[in-house]
């Protein structure tokens, strides 16, 4: 959404911090800004809340307009209100967090020069205070993956325990003990063992699993990680 160089009063904006896993790397979705301020710089997808629009509707609309991602489950991360965070005037932003499958096609809006996935650890010079929001979101994601079933948002409907463990290792950036991880994940009672097995790769056949609950919810206990 293009706006004037200065803004009257206090404006409310939304930003979306969307993560996925590509080629064994945790990635974040960024757009290249097509308008001032920070024209040509990478930023989080987002924009201003329109009159009569809820925060949730605004972040969903901006994400669809700027990246073509639709029907993404986002939950609120936090509010950012530093007085000088936007050179155009006073802007308070509410940030949202999401974890999605990487197989969705991206497309950018007229006011963005592009939408791309970037390695979460190899991005510099983000617009506004988006570097801080990114850091807060990464910390929250690492907590969420241990305290909720947010992994259901990125894994296929059927998956192996090895695939699940690898997702945790990528997000947490640490190797996990295989036996302890499997013992703990089974104790939490969030998985359903399926009668099918996976024959992919050169490894021996592996049992497939699915999440018992498909909607986002907290775990009954924290998943302790074991190195």
Can you give a write-up of this model?
By secondary structure, this protein is of the alpha+beta class. It has two domains: 11-145, Alpha-Beta Complex (Nucleoside Triphosphate Pyrophosphohydrolase); 155-211, Winged helix-like DNA-binding domain superfamily/Winged helix DNA-binding domain (Arc Repressor Mutant, subunit A, Orthogonal Bundle). Helices cover 23% and strands 30% of the residues. It is built from four helices and ten strands. It has helices at 55-67, 130-147, 161-172, 178-187; strands spanning 10-22, 25-33, 42-43, 46-48, 75-80, 90-99, 112-119, 159-160, 191-198, 206-211. The strands form two sheets. Strands 1, 2, 3, 4, 5, 6 and 7 form a seven-stranded mixed β-sheet that branches. The protein is elongated and about 60 Å long. It starts with 9 loop residues before the first strand and ends in a 16-residue tail after the last strand. The mean pLDDT is 91.
What is the annotated CATH architecture of the largest domain? Answer: Alpha-Beta Complex
Q: How far is it from the N-terminal to the C-terminal residue, by CA? A: 45 Å
**What about the largest sheet?**
7 strands, mixed
What is the arithmetic mean of pLDDT? 91
- CATH topology name of the largest domain: Nucleoside Triphosphate Pyrophosphohydrolase
Rounded radius of gyration (Å):
19 Å
Strand fraction equals 25-35%
The portion of residues assigned to helices is 10-25%
Q: Domain count, please report it.
A: 2
Short description:
The protein has four helices and ten strands.
Keywords:
single chain; 23% helix; Nucleoside Triphosphate Pyrophosphohydrolase; seven-stranded mixed beta sheet; 10 strands; Arc Repressor Mutant, subunit A; 4 helices; alpha+beta; 227 residues; three-stranded antiparallel beta sheet; 2 domains
